[in-house]
Amino acid sequence: MHQLQGKILEALDDIRPALQKDGGDVEFVDVDLDNIVTVRLTGACQNCPMSEVTLKEGIEKFLKSEIPAIKSVQAVTKD
Q1: 3-state secondary structure of 29
Q2: pLDDT tens for residues 6-59?
Q3: Which residues of 39-68 are buried (b: 16+ CB within 10 A; e: fewer)?
């Protein structure tokens, strides 16, 4: 397990209620050796035209403020 994974999961738990309020959610997928976090947007966030803004201005900005070592956050599409 990557050393940041626990902190990332805790931070996502902190932001999750705001996403769920709008019918969406976020799932942790992975963090690589370069500290790039991959998440999956689900629910209303999955097909929302504003999902990129939510990802970069919401989730990424929050995670980077909580865990400065994170370089970026990217989303994968539902398998």
Answers
A1: strand
A2: 999 999 999 999 999 989 999 999 999 999 999 999 998 888 888 889 999 999
A3: bbbeeebeeeeebeebbeebbbebbbeebe
Give residue 75's region: left, alpha or beta (phi > 0; psi -120 to 50): beta
What is the C-alpha separation between 7 and 67, in angstroms, rounded?
7
Name beta bridge partners: 28: 39
pLDDT at 78 over 80: no
Strands (E), 1-62: 24-31, 36-43
Residue 59 CA to residue 48 CA, distance in Å, equals: 15
Does the domain at 5-76 match CATH 3.30.300.130? Answer given as yes
